[in-house]
Amino acid sequence: MRVRFGAVILLAAIGGAAQAQSVSALKGHNSNAPVDFSADRIELQDRADRAVLTGNVDVKQGDMTLNADRLTIAYNSAQQTQVNRMDASGNVVLKSASETARAQFGIYDLQKRLVTMIGGVTLTRPGQGDTKGGRLVLNLNTGIATMDGGTVAGQRGRVTGRFVPPPRSN
């Protein structure tokens, strides 16, 4: 089954003091590209305009892949099944050609072209290092990736990371 994307999202807001920004390899990602998915099970909830995929969920759109234990796809059936939002939970992994983000939850807003990952987020760029925090927002329009520490049990978290500088000649 192929689905064409373009729609709306509300972001889950988790406050945080520390922030880090970088440019994502997903800048300019084609959110109108066809989406292929597979899962162990799919449940269509037509009256609620959503589909729930569970078990080894794999989603691919262009050069971006998403894996999770569960994915809820919200759509508008009045507009030829236009997908608005995808909510992923459990072992969420988002990959591009040069970076991998892992978290407990992920939200993909197709109209605003934002991906938000929440809960124990790690952004890895092989050979360049990694960054960890509570929330990551990837803006697919600008390519800006913003991470903050989030809040856990009323305590503000921090962004941590390791950057690997390139070899330099003296």
TrEMBL record:
<feature type="signal peptide">
    <location>
        <begin position="1"/>
        <end position="20"/>
    </location>
</feature>
<keyword id="KW-0732">Signal</keyword>
<protein>
    <submittedName>
        <fullName>OstA family protein</fullName>
    </submittedName>
</protein>
<feature type="domain" description="Organic solvent tolerance-like N-terminal">
    <location>
        <begin position="38"/>
        <end position="143"/>
    </location>
</feature>
<dbReference type="Pfam" id="PF03968">
    <property type="entry name" value="LptD_N"/>
</dbReference>
<dbReference type="GO" id="GO:0030288">
    <property type="term" value="C:outer membrane-bounded periplasmic space"/>
</dbReference>
<dbReference type="GO" id="GO:0015920">
    <property type="term" value="P:lipopolysaccharide transport"/>
</dbReference>
<dbReference type="GO" id="GO:0009279">
    <property type="term" value="C:cell outer membrane"/>
</dbReference>
<dbReference type="InterPro" id="IPR052037">
    <property type="entry name" value="LPS_export_LptA"/>
</dbReference>
<dbReference type="InterPro" id="IPR005653">
    <property type="entry name" value="OstA-like_N"/>
</dbReference>
<dbReference type="GO" id="GO:0017089">
    <property type="term" value="F:glycolipid transfer activity"/>
</dbReference>
